[in-house]
Write a structure and sequence with these properties.
Length: 283
């Protein structure tokens, strides 16, 4: 919520009574569904149904006794909870204060959809959902939770058109095959809950291997190394077993580390002749 103006009675809620010519964010006010204001006080209705107020407030609207000094920071308004709508009006703040009316309204129907996804195995998995009302308009600023195979993985907030984009954390832990994604809106005072499921199909990913050239002498102790990565995004393949061979003879296996590198200890003995040899790494 943003506000600007004269701010004579702390009606901007920023802790001061200083004139503000440019919009400033009202501290502590998030998830606002509606705002209402008179000449000397301001109110906000949050998505959870609570009402906050600041400016010249009176006994009927706050936990404070009658005040002739402004409240310059937002405070909860007692007696107004689980509200769907607020309205305010008033004069100078001393005679009328701020008249506030609350009305309970029935919850509206929400509709959430989520798209099937098919992509190669990767550390990056992006899923989407759409939260709409019965008229096909986006329901915005609502949180949508996501589960993968029945386990909560996080949530994201719908944008102005009801679009929700979420990046599944630790996506590389999901094996190839089909997985069940569920997108769920828990509902609030305005809209009923809704949920949707989609299938996430993870296929085998293309990989690439790089092996550096080596120059060795008899008796040298040098590891044979190879680096394994996904072609799509060049991210490392972690925990993979890589087999090394020299001139077709297997020398051993090693597991890739967090950077996708496998290192096999190797000692040059007298079996290898002087000259060029072929080092091969396989996954």
């Amino acid at each position: 919520m943003w506000a600007w103006g004269l701010n004579e009675n702390g009606t901007l809620g920023n802790g001061s009574n200083t004139l503000q010519l440019l919009p400033i964010k009202v501290p502590g006010i998030e998830g606002v569904a509606q705002v209402a204001a008179g000449s000397n006080a301001s109110f906000s209705l949050k998505l959870d149904g609570t009402v906050m107020g600041w400016g010249l407030l009176y006994t009927a609207y706050s936990a404070h006794s009658f005040q002739d000094a402004p409240v310059r920071n937002p405070i909860p308004i007692t007696g107004l909870s689980n509200q769907n709508f607020i309205a305010s009006g008033g004069g100078d703040g001393y005679i009328y204060g701020v008249l506030s009316l609350s009305v309970q309204a029935p919850q509206l129907v929400s509709n959430i959809t989520s798209n099937n996804v098919s992509q190669p195995y990767s550390s990056n998995l992006k899923v989407t959902a759409k939260l709409l009302n019965t008229k096909g308009r986006g329901i915005f600023l609502r949180k949508v939770g996501f589960t993968m195979d029945g386990t909560d993985v996080g949530n994201a907030t719908a944008d102005g058109k009801g679009n929700v984009t979420f990046v599944v954390p630790n996506a590389s832990k999901y094996a190839t095959g089909a997985h069940t994604l569920k997108a769920k809106f828990a509902g609030d005072l305005f809209y009923k809950a809704s949920a949707a499921t989609a299938t996430i199909t993870i296929t085998k990913a293309d990989t690439k291997m790089s092996v550096p050239n080596l120059t060795l002498r008899p008796g040298d102790t040098n590891p044979l190394t190879a680096t394994l990565a996904y072609k799509a995004d060049n991210s490392p393949v972690v925990g993979a077993s890589v087999k090394f061979s020299i001139d077709g003879v297997v020398t051993g296996t090693a597991t890739t580390d967090s950077k996708g590198t496998a290192a096999l200890p190797y000692v040059v003995d007298g079996i290898l002749k002087m000259g060029a040899h072929t080092l091969k790494a396989e996954f």
